[in-house]
Predict the 3D structure of the following.
Amino acid sequence: MSVGADISLKEYLKKYFGFDNFKGNQEVVIRNVLEGNDSFVLMPTGGGKSLCYQLPSLIMDGTAIVISPLIALMKNQVDSMRGFSTVDGIAHFLNSSLTKTQMQKVKQDVLDKKTKLLYVAPESLTKEENIQFLNQAKISFYAVDEAHCISEWGHDFRPEYRRIRPIINKIGVAPLIALTATATPKVQNDIQKNLDMLDANVFKSSFNRENLYYEIRPKVNATKEIIKFIKNNSGKSGIIYCLSRKRVEELAEVLQVNGIKALAYHAGMDATTRSKNQDKFLMEDVDVIVATIAFGMGIDKPDVRFVIHYDIPKSLEGYYQETGRAGRDGGEGKCLAFYSYKDIQKLEKFMQGKPLAEQEIGKQLLLETVSYAESTVCRRKSLLHYFGEQYTVENCENCDNCNHPKEQFEGKDDIVLALKTIIAVKEKFKTEHVAKILAGEKNTAIKSYKHHELEYFGQGSKENEKYWNAVMRQALIAGFIKKDIENYGLLSVSDTGREYIKNPSSFMLSKDHDYENIDDDMDSKSGGGKTAAVDTELYNILKDLRKKVAKDLNLPPFVIFQDPSIEDMAIQYPITLEEMQHIVGVGAGKAQKYGKKFIEIISTYVEEKEIIRPMDMIVKSVVNKSGIKVYIIQSIDRKMALSDIANAKGLEMHELLDEIESIVQSGTRLNIDYYINEAIDEDKQEDIYEYFREEAETESIEAALEELGEEDYSEEEIRLIRIKFFSELGN
């Protein structure tokens, strides 16, 4: 179906979604879909990708099939679509989470032509029964969301995505739209080739997200820094990414102990807990979700105000995708990553044992990440360059490198010295070893290889090992040094590096930032975020009402009205349903469905305050609510037996004591007297306590056992009293 001059796309946009104007390429993409052409859409997160298939699905005959890998995202988008319409069957999803009855209802709605949009997981699409069912349906077009999953060079490769084209051919050919928020030119070509859509019209939007602030910090006291950051941004929604599930669990617990409303989310959790935790985040019952980098969360939440990477991601695509979850509504979005080269080495270790081709891809993607993290260039410029886009502005004023430029100095001589040392050790050693030689540090390995006798030993002793590590990493990024992929980590000097030794030219190295007090600085300089002139009091009243309505309907608050809509209400003061339809993001459907309670409250407010509409005021930040204590602390507060706590969490007693020690060492005071008094004789208690207070030179359990006597005292008894001791005197 084509849209003629007599049909205004903007009228459809206003009617269904309540917006007056399209963003970026949305309109041309939608016209292309309506005209029956294949489309490849490259649009950053927050650019409005979903609308590119949602709007044409409502206009065209038949049902649009959206293939998406994220079950969580499907539910989210279906709720969102139903919020815009008065017909619940307008959107459905088909995946493994449905019961047989629910599945039957979905299929019936599709066959009855009630459903305009059907979300399908790629695994569900391949099932024979679903292929047969879709054969009977009238399909308007196919949309492949998160299309980067097709490519091995993409950050989230999924083999089942490579089977999409043959299945589509089996069901019945219809126009195809592939959408992704991240794709380098290589990944784009891979997607188009695999979907057999090399002739598709390509629509590329700028990757520049002006409202996002990018910052990399050295990974020093990262947990403490994160707590400080969150408390300075209290009440705001955020996501924290970690490398491992264990770290996710640990960090979520530490945040909870520190009064932050946080929950964990990773693929190892059972589906019910995972879904429950996500819903609490969407419903604003918790402020922060801690998740694994490896797991795509599919959080379609528009008002995420910060994304923190506790561990640096495996690729810049992954980093861009994850940071892109911040500020999707165009408001403030702070992207903070903690960087340590040790994390890169960990990621390199994970690659060992994989096929060489896979290692090669992984190695190159990691190198790009290192280059980005250590670069002194504007973060925005680096990211956009990676995606094949030029950013010509000298200073973006919204990243750490632009706001706090690093001091640079001439590093030509140091680069040459490092390259010569690598050649002197016959290119058979890793970075750390070469750095120790240059810094003049003698260890067993250096002595055994007689490297302390080399002419280069100690020639760089004016700087430490860390400095030389950084020099070599920057030389690696510049292409002067290569890392051997098979003998992992061994350094060799490239042809470019050998040429550089002969003809050295200026090479600027950079000193690290002084990161002290960066939080306060960042808050004032981070930019990003629209400051609307709104009535603060009304804004907060409307947010509370939205939360109550959402809770009654068991929906995330943003499904009712998004933040920009609430802000606009607090500027325009709509007091009729007709006026409500003119609020940004509120169409006729939403006004009818949810508007009544809101206009009642606004009317009363306007009357009581004798307001002349509209008026301007300034938004204040939302105050944070106190968090909950972790299970162990709660249980000890309730005087639960330690053995019961251990059993409840599936821990051995020594593992529980590890956890308790960790809590006490982090500064939390615990009172386990109730347990100690039952488990340990009073005299023994005094002896052990006295030992730690008067005699012990270290906290060592072994030393205590030796001193007190292994025949009379057990390790567990000593550990329990040591916990009491630290808790009472240390905290």
